Amino acid sequence: MRLSNSARLALGAAALLGAMVQAPAIAQSVAVTSIVEHPALDAVKDGVRQALTDAGYTDAKGFKWQFQTAQGNTAIAAQIARKFVGDNPDVIVAIATPSAQAVVAATKTIPVVYSAVTDPIAAQLVSTMDATGSNVTGVSDALVLEKQIELIKKVVPDAKRVGMVYNPGEANSVVVVKRLRELLPEAGMTLVEATAARTVDVGAAARSLVGKVDVIYTNTDNNVVSAYEALVKVGNDTKLPLIASDTDSVKRGAIAALGVNYRDLGVQTGKMVVRILKGEKPGDIASETSSKLELYVNPAAAKAQGVTLTEAFIGSATEVVQ
Fold it and tell me: What confidence tens digit (pLDDT) does each residue in 295-306 have?
C-alpha cells in the first residue's frame, strides 16, 4: 500500500516525536569544594544540594554531583580545583574564601559560584559586587561589624579589650581584623590579636589572650570554627566570654552570635547555580549577600563563662540553645 505524502509526513513527525520523548535529558553536573568540613560550611553544602533537588536536579534524572573537602589545607584546595577543571562540570561551587580563590585561579571559563566568602572583592574573586562579565559570581556572608560590636556590648557591657583569634593567611579574617581595628576605638574598645595559622594552634592562641582581654570575638575564620571546642575550653576554664559571628558556634559553647543562617545561604547559592544550569551566564549575575540575620543565645555558656544575661536579651533571640 502506497502512503500519501501527508501520511508519510505524519508518520515521520510521530517517529521524531517518539525519539525526542525517549532521548535522555542532557546530564548536567556540579562539582562542590569546601576548604574544610565544619557545621557552618556543611550547612552551606546541604543548602546548595537542597536547592538543586527542589529544582529537579536529581540522580534519577542523570544529574551528577561531586563534593571534595580540602581538610583545611590550601595546597589540597588547589589540587581539588585543578581536578574539577579537568572534570569540566557545568558549574563549580566553591565554599569559603581559600577554596574559592583556588578555583578562580584555576579556570577563567567554567562557571564558578562562590559561597560563604566574607569579602569577595578583597579576596580578588570579583572586581565588584555587581555583574562582572567574568565566569564568577556568588553569595557573600559579610556581616555589618557595627552590629557585631553592639552585640559584644550587650553581652559584656563593661568590655574594653576585645580579643580575636584568627588565621593571618585567610583573607576574610584579615579584612575583619583591619576593620575592627578602626571601629572598636570608636566604641571605646581596643582589639587584641592572637594568630593561629593552623587548627591545632587555636587553643594556644586563645590561652595567650587570658588576662589581656575582657571578651573574645570570633568571625567565620575556618581554622577557628573547626577547632571551636578548644576556644570554649579556655573560655569556660578562665571565665572569659566568647561571642561569635557563626550561629552554629553558639551550639558548641559560645554565649551568643548574630549571624546568617548558613543553610539558607546555601539555598540562596544553589538557586544561583540553577539559574546558570538553565542558561544564564555567571557574568550577568550580580553577587549577593544575606540580609537575614539571626541571634542565637546560649544561657548555659553564659553561666559557664561568668556572664549574666538579661531576660530581655534572651527573649530577643531567634533561638535559645538549651
Answer: 999 999 999 999
What is the separation, in whole angstroms, between the first and last Cα of the chain? 82
Report in angstroms the alpha-carbon separations of 8 from 1, 4, 14, 15, 279: 12, 6, 10, 11, 36
pLDDT digits (tens, 9 = 90+) for 45-86: 999 999 999 999 999 999 999 999 999 999 999 999 999 999
**Sign (positive or negative) of CA dihedral 177, 181, 185, 191:** positive
**Confidence (pTM):** 0.81
Q: How many CA atoms lie within 13 A of 235 on its CB side?
A: 31
Q: Which residues of 199-231 are buried (b: 16+ CB within 10 A; e: fewer)?
A: bebbbebbbbbeeebbbbbbbbbbbbbbbbebb
Rg (CA), the chain: 24
Please give the single-letter amino acid code of residue 201.
D
